[in-house]
Amino acid sequence: MKFTEKIEIPEEILLSLGKSGEELIDEMKKTLAVRYYQEKKLSLGQCAGLAGVSEEDFIKYLSGFNISIFSYVGGEELAEDIRNA
Hints:
mainly alpha, 85 residues
């Protein structure tokens, strides 16, 4: 199921940005997907779906912002994971 909503964007905003309405909406969805990914609110696959791209393309998009899909686990966290394995 998909949710559709109409968004009104003043033409002057589009002209200032040099973007079409569709381009701006695509950029907004990608920006929101990046934010939700960084905040760990959605999975990589969910964020790719929100952005309207494949997971591979979303990973490439994230790399443009120096966002890694690999998370560093600190020493204590790693030791705990090993104990719980």
